[in-house]
């Protein structure tokens, strides 16, 4: 994945081989990026649990929000250095997302906050 050190890329590959399929994290970054930068409506003008699949990104018919969930899983499971590098890629996307949705004060500190915004 561009922008990450060789060591971080190796650790992400190790995570993918243990828990997912190689390339899943890069696909998740692309899907999350597509969702947060999507022109038109806010990326999450829906209620929790509604399908948000798309043909334009690599979510392969899954809910694009699952991409962010996978990224969170990786951020929590990776060694600190690799997690920090991946966070530098994900954090700007999260910021764009949060600027485009209405805050939901009920959410608080839930682990999957991206699913419960309005």
Question: Any overview of this molecule?
Answer:
With 118 residues, the protein is mainly alpha-helical. It has one domain. It is 53% helix and 0% strand. The protein contains four helices and no strands.
The whole-angstrom Rg is: 14 Å
Strand fraction equals under 5%
Taking the alpha carbons of the first and last residues, their distance comes to 31 Å
Overall geometry = globular
Oligomer: single chain
Low-confidence stretches: 45-53, 57-61
> In total, how many beta strands?
0
Largest sheet: none
Sheet/helix structural class? mainly alpha
Give, in order, the helices and strands: HHHH
Helix content: 40-55%
Mean pLDDT: 79
In short:
The chain is mainly alpha-helical and 118 residues long. The protein contains four helices and no strands. It has one domain (6-100).
Question: What key attributes describe this structure?
Answer:
118 residues, mainly alpha, 4 helices
Give the secondary structure arrangement, pairings included.
Elements: H1 6-19, H2 24-37, H3 65-77, H4 80-100
Helix pairs in contact: 1-4, 2-3, 2-4, 3-4
């Amino acid at each position: 994945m561009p922008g990450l050190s060789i060591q971080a890329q190796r650790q992400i590959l190790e995570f993918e081989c243990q828990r997912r399929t190689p390339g899943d994290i890069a696909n998740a970054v692309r899907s999350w990026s597509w969702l947060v930068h999507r022109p038109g409506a806010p990326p999450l003008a829906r209620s929790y649990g509604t399908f948000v699949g798309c043909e334009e990104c690599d979510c392969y018919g899954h809910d694009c929000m699952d991409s962010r969930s996978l990224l969170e899983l990786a951020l929590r499971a990776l060694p600190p250095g690799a997690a920090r590098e991946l966070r530098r890629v994900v954090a700007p996307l999260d910021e764009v997302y949060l600027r485009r949705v209405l805050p939901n004060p009920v959410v608080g500190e839930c682990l999957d906050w991206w699913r419960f915004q309005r």
